[in-house]
Structures are given as structure tokens and as C-alpha cells.
């Protein structure tokens, strides 16, 4: 039998390790590291041909140069987004990159709707009150989704599942997605431009990738064009929204509800236990003080089904790399810029 391939797995939590070890083939040795991948820790993968990383790892040019110098030829992202990978540098250094394009779009779509429902019915406040023996309904007044307008930015796999579910609630569904019009129209959504979507929606939910074009899509100007009392949901990527603009919108009571599973500076906070520390990020802490804001720590994807799928897809891509087969989930740099 050929020598097994060592794989350095960064940002590996116990649950990642469990699912990856269960999926691994005999030709693989998984070395799971708790630390994140960055220019410093990249040296840990010296001599390792395949590296696996996650959403908040820093795969900048410096990291990739260290990896390439150590012999790394494949990076297997255990996530869909790859905005944290310098694809130009990877291509120049001869490192191939694969991702997991869709682990469980259902998981993310269902979490998105959980945030909407929890916000609309003030569930966090209701939960705390009942535990405290307070059964007053003051401040818990909700609203029906029926006949509300939901605006979906990004009509891809997750956005379309959210739309389908909101249609079942009796909502009108608007979609803004310049690259995916036909399939959205076929599903009964009204495809509109960005300005119309933000002006007409009672609930706006983000499901597009983070690109230079979509960074800070939700900013001061966009918020000013929304309906007063709008509900904003982001389970996509933090930097799609300007958090300072969100804070002013919440303080002026222009934004009625905010549900986020992602945060632009989440890299230094999420996926770790900081409960024994003082959190220094004042913007984040201020966000968590509003009664009409729910923040979850990038857990939308976190279901049994998704973790199994992430592990299986990652292992299949590494196996294809070992066999010299086509890498069906390879991500390439955009040569157009
Ligand atoms: P997808 O690729 O199927 O859909 C993305 C859609 O966004 C595409 O239809 C594309 O045409 C559209 N799009 C691209 N640029 C746009 C723009 N400028 N304006 C409007 N639409 C635009 O991706 P999928 O699977 O639906 O995932 C969406 C996002 O969800 C991912 O990019 C990722 O950032 C995020 N995600 C978050 C997770 C979490 O746990 N919170 C887990 C998985 C994904």
C-alpha cells in the first residue's frame, strides 16, 4: 500500500475531528490542530501536502507562501465561502483549493427562519421573563408574517430555500440577484432591483457571497431607504453589513429587528469560549445590549447532517487529489479580476 497522506486540519474542534476521522480513508492520516491557520501557524504544516481550513482562518499570501515552501499542494476548505483565501497567490504558488459548495443549505435556511421567528415574537425576552416568574405580555407584542414582504438578497441555494419557506407563510417574496434571475422567477419570487427590494421589504435577509461588490451592501444609505421598523437578517458573511450603520439604525429605532449569525470582526470572537474574559470589541458588545437584536455565533450550518456532509466532501476531494482525479469542487481565481 502507498504511504498514507498526512493532512493538517486547522481550526479543528472536537466535533470536526469526530466527523473527519469517521470519514477518512486508510490512505489518510488526519493531524487535527485546534489553532487557526495564519502566517505564524502555517509552519506547523511543514512537509504536509494537504491542509484543511475553515471560515476564519487567514489564508493570505504570507500564509500560502509558507505552506507552499513546506510542500503543501492542496487546501481543502471545510466551508462554502473562500473570501479568506488569496486565490491569486494560491494559483501562483501552485496550490489548488477546494471547498464544500453546499453542506446543508437546509440548515442555514432553517436557522435564518428561526432568527426571524424568534425576533418577531420576542422569544429571548419571553423565555427570560417566564423563568423569572414574570408573565406580563408588555413589550412582547409580535407581528404576523402572513402577507408581509420578504426581500432576499442572493437567490442561490440558501436564498431560494428561505424564499420557498416564506411563501408557505403567505409572504410575498422579492429577490435581488443579478446572476440568477430565471430560476428565482420559476419559484414564484418577484425578481427586482436592489433599491426596490430594500424599499418594499418588511424583512430583508442576506444570502449572497462576500465579494468586493457586496462588501457593506447594507450601509447608512441603504438603511435610510428601508421601511421604518424593518427586520434585517444576515446568516451569510458579516462584512455584507456595516456594523456601525446597524448601530445607528438601531439607536434611532429605524431598524426594528436585527438577527445575525455572522459579524464582520467575528474572527477574534466566534467558535471560542470567551466567558472568562472581558470582551474588548465595544461595537459587538453594544450590539448585544439591544432587546430587539439576536446574535448567534456562526452556528447556522451546525447540524449533524451538515457536519457529516462537510467531512465526506472534504475527504472525497482529498482522495481525488491523492488519486490524481478531477477535483470537482476546485475553486479558481477569477481571471477577469
Ligand atoms: P450560492 O452560491 O448558491 O448563492 C449565492 C447567490 O448570491 C447566487 O445566486 C449569486 O448569483 C448571488 N449573488 C452573487 N453576487 C451577488 C450580488 N452582488 N447581489 C446579489 N446576489 C448576488 O450560495 P449559498 O449556498 O446559497 O450560500 C450563500 C452564502 O451563505 C455563502 O456565500 C456563505 O457566505 C453563506 N453561508 C453561511 C453559513 C453559516 O453557517 N452562517 C453556512 C454556509 C454558507
Structure explained in plain terms:
The chain is 34% helix and 15% strand. It is α/β, with parallel strands linked by helices and 337 residues long. It folds into two domains: 5-103 and 304-331, 3-Layer(aba) Sandwich (Rossmann fold); 105-295, NAD(P)-binding Rossmann-like Domain (Rossmann fold, 3-Layer(aba) Sandwich). The protein has a seven-stranded parallel beta sheet with strand order 8-7-6-9-10-11-12, sandwiched between helices. The protein is globular. Bound molecules: 1,4-dihydronicotinamide adenine dinucleotide (NAI). 1,4-dihydronicotinamide adenine dinucleotide is lined by residues 80-81, 102, 105, 108, 153-159, 176-180, 207-209, 213-214, 235-237, 261-262, 298, 300-301. The site of 1,4-dihydronicotinamide adenine dinucleotide has 30 residues, from helix 4 and helix 6.
Number of E-state strands: 12
> How would you name the CATH homologous superfamily of the largest domain?
NAD(P)-binding Rossmann-like Domain
Q: Terminal Cα separation, in Å?
A: 43 Å
Q: From the 3D structure, determine the CATH topology of the largest domain.
A: Rossmann fold
Strands ordered across the widest β-sheet: 8-7-6-9-10-11-12
Average predicted local confidence, pLDDT: 96
The oligomeric status of these chains comes to single chain
| SSE order | EHEEHEHEHHEHEHEHEHEHEHEH
How many domains, in number, for the residues? Answer: 2
Unreliable stretches? none
Which secondary-structure class do the elements indicate?
A: alpha/beta
Q: Could you say which overall geometry the principal axes of the C-alpha atoms support?
A: globular
